[in-house]
Specification:
By secondary structure, the protein is α/β, with parallel strands linked by helices. It has 18 helices and 14 strands. Helix 1 crosses helix 8, helix 8 runs parallel beside helix 11 and helix 13 runs parallel beside helix 17.
Length: 459
């Protein structure tokens, strides 16, 4: 069992984690015609908005209740009510996801009670728009917890009455926050290859894939519809990707009786095989030839790439589930996970990370521990550490703002794992030490003692 320890200090230096409300907002961005709403000050929203825009390079619908000094003292119910009515009238969203921030959470308001009063008092004006609330204080947890809470709140939209007719060829997929647009598209295409219809909640592949609508749309466009989310209870099975998706999967089972399977990673051959076997079992169909071919390509990539991984020392800094996925990927190819740093110690998956110890800390801690490693693996804020240490950086996770095409990189299933092998192996090859004829001469230092003095050669 891996030891998990927290580094205690007064302040985070070069923070690794992003906040809970940002994770919740990201989940709501994967719902069609939705509007994430931060209940707090304008600064909280502006900071998250900047990170989203820099990472996705798209317009991001994100609003705030704009709490000022007076509202902070007297309470933010009026601000919340005004924001909800304004959003309903101006943008006409199908869903408003209210994410609390540290400002209002510290004050200790009764958000659920206030929201219930607003819904009751302004029922006619808010008709046709679902409003869900998630408690996401910035001072606790990280992006992973925020995503989990938002998805659990979305699952709560599924009606709990007597179950309707189950649709045998329909499944639910609950993707982890760390899956890219390309990953989610690949999951859908793979399910469709077995004749299955997948309700993916949330689905950022439809909302943040870089497509430009022909008119201005103030809310999200694309993604999972609220109607589809409500209909998840009729699916035959739920597939959750990442340990942090176990909570919403279990919640859906409690509401509608839909059984679920959790895959801790889909970036390892054995786990992918289990996923494909499950789709074959649910659909009753054999594995399509094109998927078998992709598996053969991954096997070849494993053979070609493993020479570059053996004995390499890897330093990884990421959210818990993403850390586990990356660590098992590198360890499976023969590398050593020399440094593992994460954002929060709440996840049970950390005890399964193939490293001697997992530190809960920031990027300064990561930099201090990573000296002498062969590769740094973290997001774009790790680029200064890589430069100072003289170690190459493999960019993963959120945010990545100094490279293009991040959302179109595949990291799961046979194709994604193959691409990860090539990306990492190419970084290793690009940073091989440069040899000279002198350094390769095996006789260059013969005849010298340890002090550098030339010894007499004896024949």
């Amino acid at each position: 069992m891996t030891k998990v320890t927290s580094i205690q200090k007064a302040a985070a230096v070069n923070p690794l984690k992003s906040s809970q409300p940002l994770g919740a907002a990201l989940a709501f961005l994967g719902v069609d015609a939705a509007m994430p709403l931060f209940h707090g000050s304008q600064g909280c929203t502006s900071f998250a908005l900047v990170l989203f825009v820099r990472h996705f390079k798209e317009t991001i619908p994100l609003q705030t209740t704009a709490m000022d000094e007076v509202a902070t003292v007297l309470g933010g119910a009026d601000n919340l009510e005004e924001a909800l009515i304004n959003l309903k009238n101006r943008t006409k969203p199908k869903l408003i996801g209210v994410c609390t921030t540290a400002l209002v959470e510290t004050r200790g308001e009764d958000f659920a009670g206030e929201l219930a009063n607003i819904k009751r008092k302004r029922a006619d004006e808010l008709a046709g728009t679902d409003i869900v609330l998630v408690h996401t204080p910035d001072f606790d947890g990280a992006i992973e917890e925020g995503w989990t809470k938002a998805v659990t709140a979305l699952v709560g939209l599924v009606p709990g009455e007597a179950p309707k007719r189950v649709i045998p060829n329909r499944i639910n997929i609950l993707p982890g926050w760390h899956l890219t647009v390309a990953d989610i598209e690949l999951l859908r295409e793979t399910a469709e290859a077995f004749g299955l219809e997948a309700i993916i909640t949330p689905d950022i592949s439809g909302a943040l894939d870089g497509t430009v609508p022909d008119r201005w749309i103030p809310t999200t466009y694309g993604g999972t519809s609220v109607e589809a989310i409500r209909d998840m209870g009729r699916s035959v099975h739920t597939i959750a990707i990442g340990e942090h998706m176990r909570v919403p999967a279990r919640r859906l089972e409690e509401i509608a009786g839909v059984p679920f399977t959790v895959f801790e990673t889909l970036s390892a051959l054995k786990s992918i095989d289990r996923f494909i076997a499950l789709l074959a079992e649910i659909s009753g169909r054999p594995v399509p030839a094109k998927i078998r071919r992709r598996r053969s390509q991954l096997q070849d990539a494993l053979l070609d790439g493993h020479f570059h991984f053996g004995g390499k020392r890897i330093a990884i800094a990421a959210e818990p589930d993403h850390l586990y996925t990356l660590a098992t990927f590198f360890a499976g190819l023969g590398a050593e996970i020399a440094v593992a740093v994460t954002t929060t110690g709440h996840s049970a998956i950390l005890e399964k990370v193939p490293a001697a110890e997992v530190k809960v800390g920031d990027l300064m801690d990561f930099e201090d521990l990573a000296a002498g490693c062969d590769l740094l693996v973290t997001h774009s804020h790790g680029r200064q550490a890589a430069e100072r240490l003289g170690i190459p950086l493999m960019r993963v996770g959120f945010p990545i703002f100094d490279r293009l095409g991040t959302q179109h990189k595949r990291t799961v299933l046979y194709e994604g794992t193959r691409d990860l092998i090539f990306e990492a192996a190419n970084i290793f090859q690009a940073n091989l030490p440069t040899h000279t004829p002198e350094s390769l001469n095996p006789f260059r230092h013969r005849g010298e003692n340890h002090d550098g003095d030339t010894q007499t050669a004896h024949h």
